[in-house]
Amino acid sequence: MEIKRDIYLNKLISKKHNGLIKVVTGIRRCGKSYLLFNLFKDHLLSEGVDEQHIIEIAFDSFENKHFRDPEVLYPYLKGQIEDAGMYYVLLDEVQLLGEFESVLNSLIRMKNVDVYVTGSNARFLSKDVITEFRGRGDEVHMHPLSFAEFMSVYSGTKQDGWNEYMLYGGLPPVMNISNPEEKIDFLKSLFEETYISDIVGRHNIRNRSELEELLNILSSAIGSLTNPTKLSATFKSVKQKTISNSTIKRYIDYFCDSFLIDGAVRYDIKGKKYIDTPVKYYFTDLGLRNARLNFRQLEETHTMENIIFNELKIRGFNVDVGVITQNTTNEKGHGIRRQLEIDFVCNKGSKRYYIQSAYAIPDQTKMKQEQRSLMLTGDFFKKIIITKDAPAPYYNDDGVLVMGIYDFMLNDRSLDL
User: Fold this and answer.
1) What is the dihedral of CA 192, 206, 220, 227, to 10 degrees?
2) What are φ and ψ of residue 121, in 5° steps?
3) CA angle in degrees (0–180, nearest 5) for 325-307-192
4) Measured between alpha carbons, how far is 374 from 354 in angstroms, rounded to an integer?
């Protein structure tokens, strides 16, 4: 079963021969290797590239373990480049390569070498590549399957597909498992044996149970505003454990660096400034989040909000949580200061959208409640409410675009309707 990942393939194609190292990042098992060694390689072959001019090495394969030594790899690569034609070097999980910065910098100095690599943690990209390559790295960030990609190979109805997507997420290997119990077992073991072990090993964490407890708390609180102080208090009251704010912040950074979670910072819309804390955290893949909680706490309201956040990130938006301060008076004439929230403030270039996730809007009272903050932005950027079940997209009397979740997820131009 081949799943087309045209979003990422087209990005790689557009970056060919630009003189930079193309770095494909993303959570483990999201399809980076398949993108590079199958989809992109097939593109090169279809363009007439000689297969001998495509050099591919996966550093996490046992048979390639010796290539992790730069003193072995670099002479090998130079030996493969036998003529003046363009060569394409595809390297998977390149963070396992010793002195990879020096090796890659040397490769891109060759005029007939185009380099593509993958990595599975943000520090590999942001700290090492950007610093060491000094502007020579060009990132393509890959996500698990979007709902549209999921449905492109799903044989059931979109309603059934949505239920499965919410429950098991969008990691491509899960799509190849038909039995629900086997899906659950796979996701649980993947979390324990790959993601957690990877973080513990990479950062030499001594108290693994502490790290996992924090991950459980974050899993239970997707879409909720939180900060290290609040989380520390939760540990003390619920877990009867004391853990410092700095340790919690460091663990959260590890989760973000591994692309397990992503954060949305609050943005004061009228004040035009960011509010550093608290932050909302969302899981990159809902299947992994649900596995963390043994497939309990499957509230569709929070799950839908998480999926919308991921979709916006897939579409390339910078996503913040909008905050609007409203000053009113009560019946006695006393001033009241309230903070209203907009779920997502989405920016890309000159475009901005304000989006509310509302699972159900049964009546006009609920509609007014959901759009109250949208009406106070003081600008004319498009305002959107996404619901679980809605008729065809329409604009209500206040100029707010209302659309159902399927119309939003299955049409990549839905925000421009």
Assistant:
1) -140
2) -150, 150
3) 115
4) 7
With the C-alpha atoms ordered 143, 147, 149, 151, is the resulting torsion angle positive or negative? positive
Locate 139 and state its tokens: 């990132």
Task: Report the C-alpha gap between 267 and 274 in whole angstroms.
Answer: 4
The CA-atom distances, in angstroms, between 281 and each of 74, 188, 220 are 41, 21, 11
User: Counting beta carbons within 10 angstroms of the beta carbon of residue 198, is it exposed (0 to 12), middle (13 to 18) or buried (19 or more)?
Assistant: middle
**Backbone conformation region of residue 294, classed left if phi is above 0, alpha if psi is from -120 to 50, else beta:** left
Measured distance CA(401)–CA(195) in Å, rounded = 39
- The torsion defined by the Cα of 151, 154, 158 and 163, in degrees rounded to 10, comes to -100
Alpha helices for 372-415 (secondary structure H): 405-410
DSSP output for 243-311: --HHHHHHHHHHHHHTTSEEEEEEEETTTTEEEEEEEEEEES-HHHHHHHTTT----HHHHHHHHHHHH
Residues 6+ apart with CB under 8 A from 184: 168, 291, 295
Sheet holding 21-25, edge to edge: 54-58, 87-92, 113-119, 21-25, 137-141
For residue 351, the cross-strand partners are 348
Helix or strand holding residue 346 (H, E): strand 335-348
User: Where residue 391 falls among pLDDT bands split at 50, 70, 90?
Assistant: confident
- pLDDT above 90 (res 262): yes
- Summarize pLDDT for 44-87 with one digit per residue, the tens: 999 999 999 999 999 999 999 999 999 999 999 999 999 999 99
Q: What does each C-alpha distance from 382 to 217, 227, 271, 375, 401 come to in angstroms?
A: 34, 30, 19, 11, 8
3-state secondary structure of 238: helix
pLDDT band of 121, cuts 50, 70, 90: low
Give pLDDT tens digits for 296-315.
878 899 999 999 999 999 99
State pTM to two decimals: 0.93
257 pLDDT more than 60: yes
- The answer to whether the CB of 112 falls within 8 A of the CB of 87 is yes
Tokens 């009397």: give the residue. Answer: 397
